[in-house]
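Lecture notes, continued. The same structure-token format from the folding unit now serves as the input rather than the output. Read the line below as a description of shape only.
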């Protein structure tokens, strides 16, 4: 592609994207088509033998994705934990792709590497993390948590697990501690990194789904008495289902006393630390040995961008570094070669979109947007409480959960909880394909709940106020159909 062609195609594409962003509110939040329909739109042709002209290709690509997407940036996307995606991040990705830096090594990407290092430092400042720490950007929360997990294994296993593995002959079995509310990355980590999921000890949670520290202490004692080796406790700064925040300062104290690595999963809620209205316990993120946060959630960076911070930066090369002959010998301390600080070798310039977002909004801007998201969640929770056919269940950070309950099941006597689970699952299915509002679900104490999570700077009070009646309308219709009643 010649520069002139790039210029005119680029201008046309940016115009189209600007139009899309301007009309986002008027589009359905999801296209609602099934897999067969989406596949049919794409066509099943084989790999093209010959190339085509870029203008037509870009045109078709834009149409395919704009017309067959779920839009996390839509003001009524309130599902899972997906940030809205700041437009400056989209421009940053274009610039990053054009310069095509490889942030595996400083000498391949000097300014880009420094921008990543500065971004990580600023994220540390945002969290109140002490100086002297370090970190690295990752593809997302799972990978950031994996890095913390591996650092814990490196730091706390008394034999050389990098060469001998995690279960050499005669070694005690490793054990780690977390609640059943922790995101499923923990299972992947225990499995992938050789411990097996039996190494996970489930700590009880209280009525608000927060870790019970007394139970943590008891489990650690039991394991030591049985000859096992406790090495890691994982606490949540905002659980994925309900936004529960574990009592981080108490857990930090126990970890310190017991010699455990203290890892915090702050992928969802870490950035709410210090934001007015957030739980005080969140300030305990600063006590972590390692913490995972996700700029592609509450910093609104477009996917993908995660980040892990460690209290002592030396643990990262101690965990990941191999120096093959085809890389420069030992770098000076001043220059970070990120291939030695994490699992990736070649690495993209994801730092740029995060760095630009931080500069565009500043600490104050992020505080205001996060506080607003939390206030909107409370507004929805309160509205659910006032609605005769909705029952609010939990409120944590910017997550509200609730349930549609038909009028004749409002009293405990006439209730069929199994039916309500099925009915609310049907409501969710209808909402996710309907295009009016996109929710997801949580299962709390075995009950299926509708769940709204706001990590979206476009969502307004008006959007939130529309949710109860949209849900109730779907609930009424489906209840009639499922119980075979006539209206
Ligand atoms: C608490 C928590 N941890 C980890 C993750 C995984 O993050 P990612 O999807 O960015 O890998 C999520 C995702 O929602 C999360 O909410």
């Amino acid at each position: 592609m010649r520069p002139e062609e790039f210029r005119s195609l680029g201008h046309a594409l940016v115009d189209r994207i600007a139009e899309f962003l301007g009309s986002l509110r008027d589009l359905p939040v999801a296209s609602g088509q099934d897999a067969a329909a989406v596949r049919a739109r794409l066509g099943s042709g084989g790999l093209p033998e010959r190339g085509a002209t870029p203008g037509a290709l870009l045109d078709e690509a834009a149409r395919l994705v704009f017309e067959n997407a779920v839009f996390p940036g839509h003001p009524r996307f309130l599902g899972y934990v997906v940030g809205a995606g700041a437009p400056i991040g989209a421009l940053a990705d274009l610039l990053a792709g054009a310069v095509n830096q490889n942030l595996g090594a400083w000498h391949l990407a000097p300014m880009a590497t420094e921008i990543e290092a500065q971004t990580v430092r600023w994220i540390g400042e945002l969290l109140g993390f002490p100086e002297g720490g370090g970190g690295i950007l990752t593809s997302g929360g799972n990978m950031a948590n994996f890095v913390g997990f591996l650092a814990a294994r490196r730091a706390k296993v008394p034999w050389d697990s990098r060469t001998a593995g995690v279960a050499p002959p005669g070694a005690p079995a490793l054990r780690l501690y977390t609640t059943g509310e922790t995101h499923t990355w923990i299972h992947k980590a225990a499995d992938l990194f050789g411990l097996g999921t039996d190494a996970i000890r489930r700590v009880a949670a209280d009525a608000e789904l927060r870790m019970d520290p007394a139970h943590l202490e008891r489990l650690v004692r039991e394991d030591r008495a049985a000859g096992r080796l406790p090495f890691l406790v994982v606490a949540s700064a905002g659980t994925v289902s309900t936004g529960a925040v574990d009592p981080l300062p108490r857990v930090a104290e126990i970890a310190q006393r017991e010699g455990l690595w203290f890892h915090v999963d702050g992928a969802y809620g870490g950035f709410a630390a210090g934001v007015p209205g957030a739980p005080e316990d969140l300030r305990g993120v600063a006590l972590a040995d390692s913490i995972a946060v996700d700029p592609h959630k509450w910093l609104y960076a477009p996917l993908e961008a995660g980040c892990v911070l460690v209290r002592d930066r030396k643990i990262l090369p101690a965990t990941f570094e191999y120096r093959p002959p085809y890389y420069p010998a030992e770098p000076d301390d001043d220059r970070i070669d990120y291939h030695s600080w994490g699992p990736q070798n070649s690495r993209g310039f994801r730092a740029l979109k995060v760095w630009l977002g931080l500069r565009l909004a500043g600490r104050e801007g992020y505080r205001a947007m996060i506080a607003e998201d939390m206030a909107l969640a409370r507004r929805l929770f309160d509205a659910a409480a006032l609605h005769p056919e909705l029952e609010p269940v939990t409120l944590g950070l910017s997550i509200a959960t609730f349930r549609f309950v038909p009028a004749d099941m409002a009293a405990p006597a006439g209730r069929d909880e199994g039916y309500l689970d099925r009915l609310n699952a049907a409501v969710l299915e209808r909402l996710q394909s309907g295009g009016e509002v996109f929710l997801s679900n949580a299962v709390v104490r075995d009950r299926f709940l509708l769940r709204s999570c706001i990590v979206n700077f476009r969502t307004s009070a008006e959007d939130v106020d529309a949710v109860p009646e949209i849900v109730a309308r779907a609930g009424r219709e489906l209840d009639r159909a499922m119980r075979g009643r006539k209206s």
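Point for the exam: The chain has three domains: 3-69, 101-348, 370-482.
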